[in-house]
Amino acid sequence: MNPFSLDGRTALVTGANTGIGQAIARAMGRAGATVICAGRSSCAETLEDIENGRELRLDFSDPMAARDVFAETPVDILVNNAGIIRRADAIAFSETDWDDVMDVNLKALFFTCQAFARAVLDRGADGQIVNIASLLSFQGGIRVPSYTASKHGVAGLTKLLANEWAAEGINVNAIAPGYIETNNTEALRADAERNKAILDRIPAGRWGRPDDIAEAAVFLASPAARYIHGAVLNVDGGWLAR
User: Fold this and answer.
1) Per-residue pLDDT of the chain (242 residues; tens, 9 = 90+)
2) DSSP secondary-structure letter at 3?
3) Residue 22 lies in a domain
4) Of residues 237, 234, 112, 123, the one with CA closest to residue 169
């Protein structure tokens, strides 16, 4: 058996309509999984490149949006990629911007993991959870207080859930992406000064690509990672090692 194959598995990827989530969904499909592409907007473009896939509309501004999903459809792999960000100086940051980000990035992630684990344990099966953390799970950043707090929380919850569920056959791990070429970073890459400053800090000498994150996610969801629990894998071109 190929230890990196996802044949016979069903994966649900949140935020699969674009960017990193889209790349992860496609990579899971290439590895043999049936892929449920979940998002609050259309995932039609993602599904064009997935042989066995379907769309599920989920809006995680309701943190309990996925509470019934796993009881209805057996899922083996959960990738929590959906997230939002709000930017403002800490001195002026609003309660609304705090709550909106924490609801999507942390509260929804926890309760989606909970619903997934309950369904997996009820089936007597095993399962894999891959959470998308951030470099700001380790660093402070600036002007993104709720995002930073939420991503620190993702790293902590990943470890806590691994502690509780590893012996039950559920792997819980996370990926911390570095600077990746997506729509969210287009303005940074277009700014010659900022782009140079970022590249000068990355030992690999280039921005990451969504597929760099996607293949790491496939690995963590595969049998090859069966003894990996509670890890937060930096996929950042060496940024944090600098």
Assistant:
1) 899 999 999 999 999 999 999 999 999 999 999 999 999 999 999 999 999 999 999 999 999 999 999 998 999 999 999 999 999 999 999 999 999 999 999 999 999 999 999 999 999 999 999 999 999 999 999 999 999 999 999 999 999 999 999 999 999 999 999 999 998 888 889 999 999 999 999 999 999 999 999 999 999 999 999 999 999 999 999 999 99
2) T
3) yes
4) 123
**8 A C-beta contact, residue 73 and residue 54:** no
The set of catalytic residues is 147
Q: Which residues contact 77 (CB under 8 A, 6 or more apart)?
A: 6, 9, 10, 11, 12, 28, 33, 127, 128, 129, 130, 221
Q: What CATH number has the domain bearing residue 65?
A: 3.40.50.720
29 in Cβ contact with 51 (< 8 Å): yes
Residue 1, both tokens? 């058996």
Spell 37-76 as b/e; 16+ CB within 10 A means b. Answer: bbbbeebeebbeebeebebbebebeebebbeebbeeeebb
Question: How many Cβ atoms are within 10 Å of 111's Cβ, its own excluded?
Answer: 17
Q: What is the number of domains present in the chain? A: 1
Domain housing 116:
10-180+210-235
Strands 232-235 and 170-177: parallel
> pTM here?
0.97
